[in-house]
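stage 2 :: seqdesign
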C-alpha cells in the first residue's frame, strides 16, 4: 500500500534570476547574501537595531534619507557617496544605530529580499545566524526555499554553501525532502566546504572583489558561523528581529 509523503520541501534557488521558476511552491523564503548584506543585517539586529528597511534602488534610499532616516547604501562593494554607511557588518555595530530604524540598499541582497516578499514569508539567512535559523525552520514545518542572492544574477559559492548547510540540517530531521538538483548540489558543496569554509572560499569571486577593497575583516566576520544569532523577519516592508528562543 502506498502512503502519501507528508514531508515538507526544502530547496535551493541559485540566483534571483531563477526565482520565477521556483517561487510559487514555498511558504518561507530564506534570503541569503553571505558577503555581505544578510550578514550585515544579522549583525545589525544582534547589536540592537530596531528595524531595517531594505530597499532596492538608490533613489528609494535617497527618499528615506530626505525624511531623516539613517541610510546605508552599497554598490560594487563601496559606500555610495552621500550615505551614512555602506554594507559592512561593523557599521551596524555602532552606538549610533542602536534602537534605530535603518534603511539599507545593496547591489544584490536587498534586491533579493524585495523580489522574495511577493512569494512567501521572508527571513534572513547567513552563516552568522545559521544554527538559530535552522532550528526555527525545523519548528515551522513549512515548505522552505533558500534564495541565494549571488552576484548580479550569477551563481556564487558562499550563498550556495550557506543554503546547503540549511538543507543538510533540515533533511537530517526526516521532516523534509527535496527534489531539485540545485538543492542536492548545494548540499554536497556544503559538505565538502564545512570543515574549512574560509579556505574553501579562497578563490571565490566575491571574496576576491572584497579583498581588493581591503575588506578582509568583513570577510572574516561574514564567514564565521553563529556570531549573530538572531532571526530577522520581514513584516510589511520592514525587517524586525523575531522575539523567540530557538536554541536547541
Ligand atoms: O550585493 C550585495 O548585496 C552586497 O552584499 C555586496 S557587497 O558585499 O557589499 O559588495
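stage 2 :: out
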Amino acid at each position: 500500500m502506498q502512503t502519501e509523503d507528508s514531508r515538507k520541501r526544502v530547496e535551493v534557488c541559485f540566483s534571483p534570476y531563477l526565482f520565477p521558476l521556483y517561487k510559487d511552491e514555498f511558504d518561507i523564503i530564506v534570503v541569503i547574501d553571505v558577503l555581505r548584506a544578510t550578514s550585515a543585517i544579522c549583525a545589525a539586529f544582534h547589536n540592537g537595531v530596531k528595524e531595517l528597511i531594505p530597499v532596492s534602488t538608490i533613489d528609494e534610499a535617497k527618499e528615506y534619507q530626505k525624511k531623516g532616516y539613517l541610510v546605508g547604501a552599497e554598490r560594487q562593494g563601496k559606500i555610495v557617496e552621500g550615505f551614512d554607511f555602506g554594507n559592512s557588518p561593523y557599521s551596524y555595530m555602532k552606538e549610533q544605530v542602536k534602537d534605530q530604524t535603518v534603511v539599507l540598499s545593496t547591489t544584490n541582497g536587498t534586491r533579493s529580499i524585495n523580489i522574495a516578499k511577493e512569494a512567501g514569508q521572508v527571513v534572513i539567512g547567513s552563516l552568522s545566524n545559521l544554527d538559530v535559523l535552522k532550528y526555527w525552520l525545523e519548528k515551522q514545518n513549512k515548505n522552505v526555499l533558500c534564495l541565494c542572492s549571488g552576484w548580479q544574477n550569477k551563481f556564487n559559492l558562499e550563498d550556495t554553501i550557506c543554503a546547503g548547510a540549511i538543507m543538510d540540517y533540515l533533511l537530517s530531521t526526516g521532516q523534509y525532502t527535496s527534489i531539485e538538483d540545485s538543492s542536492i548540489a548545494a548540499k554536497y558543496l556544503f559538505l565538502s566546504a564545512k570543515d574549512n569554509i574560509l579556505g574553501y572560499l579562497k578563490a571565490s569571486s566575491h571574496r576576491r572583489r572584497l579583498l581588493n577593497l581591503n575588506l578582509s575583516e568583513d570577510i572574516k566576520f561574514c564567514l564565521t558561523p553563529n556570531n549573530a544569532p538572531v532571526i530577522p523577519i520581514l513584516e510589511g516592508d520592514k525587517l524586525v528581529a523575531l522575539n523567540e528562543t530557538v536554541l536547541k
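stage 3 :: structure notes
- The mean pLDDT is 94.
- Residues 4-241 form a domain with the putative 2-phosphosulfolactate phosphatase fold (CATH 3.90.1560.10).
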